[in-house]
Every structure is written in structure tokens, then in C-alpha cells.
Amino acid sequence: MICKVKLWADGGIFVRKWLLGLCLLLFLDTQTAGHLREKTSLQDLRDRGIPTRMLERLEIPAEEIRLYGIFWEDLQYFPAAGRKEVQGQQFFFENSWHARRTFQGERLHEGCDIFGREEKSGYYPILSMTDGIVEKVGWLPLGGYRIGIRSPGGGYFYYAHLSSYAREFQTGEQIKAGEVLGFLGDTGYGEEGTAGKFVPHLHLGIYVRTQTEEDHALNPYPVLQFLQKRQKNFFY
Questions:
Q1: Which residues form the M23ase beta-sheet core domain (predicted)?
Q2: 132, β-bridge pairs
Q3: Burial class (CB in 10 A: 0-12, 13-18, 19+), 156
Q4: Residue 123 in contact with residue 83, Cβ under 8 Å?
Q5: 147, 189, 225, 234: least buried by Cβ within 10 Å?
Q6: Distances (CA, A) of 7 to 2, 14, 16, 20, 34
Q7: The pLDDT value given to residue 101
């Protein structure tokens, strides 16, 4: 009897070790498969000309990088236009993603701000970065005069604090990349017509639809870096 009990105990230890080893192998296989899928996905984006290395340097997670692929091939122009006769850099921006803001309560900055060399409202034209369709237009207490364009791939581009519109836009209207939407300004932070509460600038927001969110915000900073050399300038 003693021998039988010992054999059963030894056998039980062996089975438990075998099961533990099997679970470990399955876990490693799952992790490896996930890593390969992620690597393949990012490689696919690179093959499409999307600068994933730049996004990775900004410590944007891989799952977020894949979301940029929704609209990246729609991008054509930097959103602000300068004067053709002016030499040197005319616009400045920094990575202010998720910086703290306090108007209408504590919140995080879901966008990137673009400032002009000339701190003048109504001075710089604001362009559509992509082809698309007007989804929203008009006044918002936070964004002032704003317009939202949905690109063919599905990105939603939000242009805020405009001093005025280039014309009377209608929802559902088709927009061409490079078309003037309005002018960089300082509207917002109050009832319609409020202006002058901050330095004139363009607030750019970029959103995509996901399985869990209607408007998932992405950091526009790498998009602006990518488009810096695609700036349209005019004589005016």
C-alpha cells in the first residue's frame, strides 16, 4: 500500500509539472504570435510609407500607431499657409498633447496648437489637410469658430479658434485638400463672438472611430512634423 501511494504521489507531481510546462508553452506561443502580428502590422504601415519609427520615438503605443494608418494616406498639406515672399519659418508648434487645461474645468489638451510668426488674428489662411466632407461647422464655446472635416479614410480633422470662415460652409459639403477653410484666430472661451482671450493660434485635433469610441483622439504632433515641408504659401 505504501508503494502504491508513493507512486501515485510521484505521478501527481509529474502530471502537475507537465501541465505547468504545457501552460508555459501556450503562453509563450500566444505572446510570440501577438508580437509577430504587431510586427507584421507595423511593417505593413511602413510599406505604405507611414513613418512608424517617428511615431515610436514619440512613445506612441503600437495599437495607437495602427490607428494613424486609418487616415495617413489622406494627408496632403500643412494646415496653415504663410506669405510667399516671407523668408524663414512662419509657424511654430510643440508637442502639447495632454497638457493640462482649466477652461470649463480640469481637462487634458486633445490636440496641437500652431502659432504664426505674426501674432495677428485673421492674418494666416487655414487649409484643409485632406480631401473630405464637412461634418460640423459653427461656434463652440471652447473652440470658437470651428470646422470639422472627415477624410476619405475616416480621420476627423478639427480646426478651431478661426477668426472667420473663407465662405459659408454646409455640412455634407465636399472639400478638397489645400482649400482655404478660414483664417487663424483667437475666438472661443465664451459665448459666440468671444475673442482675444489668448494668443491667436490654430488648435488642430485629430479623431478616429474605434470599436469602443466614436471619437478617439490621436496626438496630431507627428502629423504636423510629417507635413511641415508640405506647406502652401500665397501672395497676399
A1: 108-210
A2: 175
A3: buried
A4: no
A5: 234
A6: 9, 10, 14, 20, 40
A7: 80
C-alpha cell at 64: 495607437
Cβ neighbour number for residue 96 with a 10 Å cutoff: 16
**SS3 annotation, 127-149:** ECCCCEEEEEEEEECCCEEEEEE
Q: How many CB atoms lie within 10 A of CB 198?
A: 15
| Cα–Cα distance for residue pair 217/115, rounded to 1 Å | 21
Amino acid 53 reads R
Q: How far is it, in rounded angstroms, from Cα 194 to Cα 2? A: 90
Rounded mean pLDDT for each run of 10 residues along the chain, 236 residues in total: 46 54 48 43 90 93 95 98 95 89 79 97 98 98 97 98 98 98 97 97 98 95 96 92
Q: What's the grid cell of residue 149? A: 472635416
Which cell numbers in the block locate residue 4? 502504491
